[in-house]
Structure formats: structure tokens, C-alpha cells
Amino acid sequence: MLAWSNDQKQANWGPGGDSYEASLSQDGRKIAWSDDLGVRIAGVSTTSADPCVFSSPPVTIAAGAQSPSIGGGDFSQITPSGNLTVSLPPRLKIKGLTGASGVVITVRTRSAGRVRVTGTVPASRLGLKGNKKLVVVSGSAVAGSAGPVKVRLRIVSRYRKYKARLKGATVELRIGQGSNLLVRRIKLG
Questions:
Q1: Higher pLDDT, 139 or 24
Q2: Which letter does DSSP use for residue 142 in this model?
Q3: Pairwise CA distance, residues 147 & 54, whole Å
Q4: How far apart are CA 153 and CA 131, in angstroms?
């Protein structure tokens, strides 16, 4: 999330501490800033979540440096995940996700290409060890052109035996097409 103070000079995006002097690329896809780690760059935020969910991970390009400048982009023009939108039901039904036809969601794209959807939950939700996020739901479809495409979601076969534990879980859906990424959270019912 591009959460700036009123003077547009300071934000806090993570382990580098307070972030200053952000610079947006002219195509609106990359953002650079300086923080305690130096000058850093990442893909723009993909959601309005706090903390930020960048479309590519932050990379330090000049340790200890300040005053990044990668373009003259206009911050007011950023709409997170503006290239993808999705229509989701109130809940994803476990019965549908384990059925042969899956659960269909509609993703609206601005270009042709493959749309991939993955849904993750923490391993602990399934009673497994570790903090790792596991991909328990997936699906994909190819958009022939800009516009809506239907993506059929199913539970990943190795996690079907955990369907009772998945009921009521909140899944983080990552909907991607090329460099465009949209993140949504939805409950399984």
C-alpha cells in the first residue's frame, strides 16, 4: 500500500525502517525509495493491504545511498492491481472445490494471456509443522483477449484429505497474469 504522509516524503514499508523520497517509474510499474538499507526498488503495491504486497520483492540497489530517481510518474494514477479484477462468491465451498467441476470465478483482464490463481493457508491450519504457506487451491485459464475469463478452482489433490480442516479457513488467493498480481482473501465454507 502506498501509504504516504501528507508531505509525500515518508512511509514505512518494512525492514528498512521509515522510507523516504519515493520515485515512481513512468510506466507506473516500479517504485524506488530510500530507507535505512539504502536505495531500494520494487514492483508497485498489488493491494491496498498494510503492510505492502509488492508485485516484485524489494531489492537494495545502492546500500547506504539516498535520493532515488527512476522517473516522473504520478502517484495519484496508481490503482493497485488495476489490470485485473475478480468476481468472487461470498465463500468458496469445499464441496465444490473437491468436485469434478470445481468452483468457477471470473477474472477480468486488460490483455490476452494465461491467468493463474493459487490459494494458500498456513501449514498449521492443516495440523502440519512450520509456518510455511501451502498452496491448497489452484486453477488457471487462458484469456484470448482483454475481458472476462472464467477460472475453475479446485483443491490441490494432495490436500483433499484435509478438507475438514480447511472448512472455515481464510485462503489468500493470488490472481496473476504476467506481471499483474491481485491478492484477495476469502473463507472456505
A1: 139
A2: E
A3: 24
A4: 24
